[in-house]
Design a protein that fits this description.
Number of strands: 10
Mean pLDDT: 94
Number of helices: 14
Structural class: alpha/beta
Distance between the termini: 36 Å
Largest sheet: 8 strands, parallel
Order of helices and strands: HEHEHHEHEHEHHEHHEHEHHEEH
Helix content: 40-55%
Strand content: 5-15%
Low-confidence stretches: none
Length: 308
C-alpha cells in the first residue's frame, strides 16, 4: 500500500537530461563514468551483460555506484525484465546509493506494481524510507504500446517513462527512424505528461553515436516535441543532451519578462497583455513558469555536480 507515502518529495529537483549507460561489471567504464558530466549514470545489468555474467554483475553494483556518483550524478540501475533475474537484481542493488531502478521491457501496469512492491519490502527490511528508490519504466513491445497510459500511471514511485527505440521498432517490424517513431514517441510523451512523470527519449534512434551533428539535430527536435532528457550509450553524446535539453539564456530571459509583465497586467485588472507583438494570457505564463522551474532545477543540479 502506498496511500500515505509522500513519493513526490523524492522526485523534487530530479534532472535527467542525460543518462549514460555503463555496464556494471566493466571496470574501465565504471572508473571513468564520473568524468562524463551526465546527470545520471545507469548501471546496466540487462542488455550489456552476458547471461553467464548476470550473477557476478549484480554484485558489482554497490561499489560501482559509489564510483560513478563521485561527481554528483544520480545512479539508476537497469534491472532485467524477467522476474527470475529481476528480483535477484533488486535484492542485490536496493540501497542508499541508488536513486532509482530502470525497468525495461515493461509489459503492463501489474509489472510496475509488482516491482514497486518488491522495492518497498526491501527498503523496509534495510531501514530505508519507503519511496526513496524511484522507478523509470520503458516500454519496448507492440503489446505494451497499447497499455502506455496505464503503465505510466501504475504507481507513484514512477518518476520517468519512455519508449525504447530499438526494441520497439524490432517488435513492430520496421527500421528505427524519425518517420517510423514519431507517432509512438508522441504517444509516450502524452502518456508521461498525463501521469505527471518525466518523458524520456528521442524522436529518432540514439544508437548511432558517430554522427554527432545529426544527433544534435535529433535532440533539438526531441526537446521541441516535449522530451526532457534521454539515455545514451556513448559519453560523446552526453554534452549534446545536456546542452540541447537545457533552456537557452534567451528563453529564460523571455520567460522572466513574460512573468513580470503579466504580473503587472494582473495587478491592473487585466488577464492578457501584449508582449513583443504577441498576446500573452495564462497558458503562455504557465509555460514560462514551467521553463523557469526547469532551468532552476538544472542550475541546482549543475552546481551540485561542480561542488562534488
Amino acid at each position: 500500500m502506498h496511500e500515505h507515502v509522500e513519493y513526490h518529495k523524492f522526485r523534487e529537483g530530479l534532472v535527467l537530461r542525460s543518462m549514460l549507460f555503463v555496464p556494471a561489471n566493466v571496470d574501465k567504464f565504471v572508473e571513468k563514468a564520473h568524468t562524463r558530466g551526465a546527470d545520471a549514470i545507469i548501471l546496466d545489468l540487462e542488455d550489456s551483460v552476458a547471461l553467464s555474467e548476470k550473477a557476478s554483475a549484480r554484485q558489482c553494483v554497490t561499489e560501482a555506484a559509489a564510483k560513478v556518483s563521485r561527481s554528483g550524478a544520480d545512479v539508476f540501475v537497469r534491472i532485467n525484465s524477467p522476474l527470475r533475474l529481476g528480483i535477484p537484481d533488486l535484492e542485490a542493488v536496493i540501497g542508499s546509493g541508488i536513486r532509482g531502478i530502470l525497468l525495461p521491457k515493461c509489459d503492463g501496469p501489474s509489472h510496475v506494481r509488482l516491482v514497486a512492491d518488491a522495492i518497498a519490502e526491501l527498503e523496509a527490511e534495510r531501514g530505508m524510507e519507503i519511496g526513496a528508490t524511484l522507478m523509470s519504466a520503458r516500454i519496448e513491445t507492440a503489446d505494451a504500446f497499447f497499455k502506455m497510459e496505464k503503465i505510466a500511471k501504475a504507481h507513484p514511485r514512477l518518476a520517468a517513462f519512455g519508449l525504447g527505440s530499438e526494441d520497439f521498432t524490432l517488435s513492430i517490424g520496421v527500421e528505427p527512424s524519425v518517420e517510423t517513431l514519431i507517432y509512438p514517441k508522441q504517444c509516450s510523451i502524452i502518456a508521461a505528461r498525463a501521469a505527471g512523470v518525466i518523458p524520456l527519449g528521442l524522436v529518432g534512434s540514439g544508437a548511432d553515436y558517430t554522427r554527432l551533428d545529426e544527433m544534435r539535430v535529433t535532440v533539438k527536435k526531441s526537446r521541441q516535441f516535449g522530451f526532457e532528457g534521454s539515455s545514451c550509450i556513448h559519453p560523446a553524446v552526453v554534452p549534446i543532451l545536456n546542452e540541447e535539453f537545457n533552456p537557452g539564456q534567451d528563453e529564460i530571459d523571455n520567460a522572466r519578462k513574460i512573468i513580470d509583465q503579466f504580473a503587472i497586467s494582473i495587478a491592473a485588472g487585466k488577464a492578457a497583455v501584449e508582449i513583443d507583438g504577441k498576446m500573452v494570457d495564462y497558458p503562455i505564463v504557465y509555460r514560462a513558469e514551467n521553463l523557469i522551474k526547469k532551468a532552476d532545477a538544472i542550475a541546482a543540479k549543475e552546481a551540485k555536480m561542480k561542488s562534488a
